[in-house]
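Case study: Immunoglobulin.
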Amino acid sequence: MKLSLLEQETVLLYNQAESAAEVYTHDPKLMKKLEQLAEKYPEQIIKKDAHNFIVPKRCVSVREPYSEKRRKAASERARAAGYKPPLKSSSGQ
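Here is what the predicted structure looks like once written out:
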């Protein structure tokens, strides 16, 4: 059964005593990224089961939102470097 976008949640669990965080997710893009990282860095990113991963806390961050000026400057730098964003898929995700 396919989950709705609302049901594709992600939960981060960590505490001050441990150096790792647990990531529980049903977000397909995040799951794919975590699976790839678990293959590349098996000693640091651990796949517990289909939806649970253990990651170093240093991999979890909350950043200041980009200002419109900063976003535009980053976009212009990417264009100047020849980066082309991927085409949006028509599957609705």
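For the exam, be able to explain this: The two ends are 16 Å apart (CA to CA).
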